[in-house]
């Protein structure tokens, strides 16, 4: 009987650890997805601002559309010349992963 209790306890601990690792893995995936969305959104905004990519949309509206395609939302977008700075949020289990990215021509050009 004691062996059954130990086995049940070990099984419970293993199940709890598995659930915890799954949650941490999901959060890590969401953070990477937010980082990718921020990079893509900043590049899209900078390209639209410089005229490299013709767009009828405002550069920040284009950034929001690109971030939305990745499942993220733009919380801040600013342009200084051709340099775009974008901050996006992506949700996972009620928590928000926030990522910022900046894109534009090389400094000095």
What's the N-to-C terminus distance?
Answer: 77 Å
**Biggest pleated-sheet summary:** 3 strands, antiparallel
What sequence of helices (H) and strands (E) makes up the elements?
HHEEE
Number of strands: 3
Count of all domains? 1
How big is the Rg?
Answer: 21 Å
Can you list the strand order of the major beta sheet?
Answer: 1-2-3
Characterize the quaternary organization of these chains. single chain
Number of distinct helices: 2
Sheet/helix structural class: alpha+beta
Low-pLDDT segments = none
Helix content: 55-70%
Summary?
By secondary structure, the protein is an alpha+beta fold. It is 55% helix and 25% strand. The termini are far apart.
Structure keywords:
109 residues, three-stranded antiparallel beta sheet
């Amino acid at each position: 009987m004691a062996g059954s209790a130990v086995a049940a306890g070990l099984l419970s601990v293993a199940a709890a650890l598995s659930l915890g690792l799954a949650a941490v893995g999901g959060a890590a995936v969401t953070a990477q997805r937010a980082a990718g969305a921020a990079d893509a959104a900043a590049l899209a905004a900078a390209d639209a601002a410089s005229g490299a990519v013709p767009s009828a949309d405002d550069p920040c509206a284009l950034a929001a559309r690109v971030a939305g395609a990745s499942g993220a939302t733009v919380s801040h977008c600013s342009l200084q010349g051709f340099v775009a700075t974008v901050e996006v949020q992506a949700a996972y289990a009620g928590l928000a992963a926030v990522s910022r990215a900046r894109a534009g021509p090389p400094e000095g050009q």
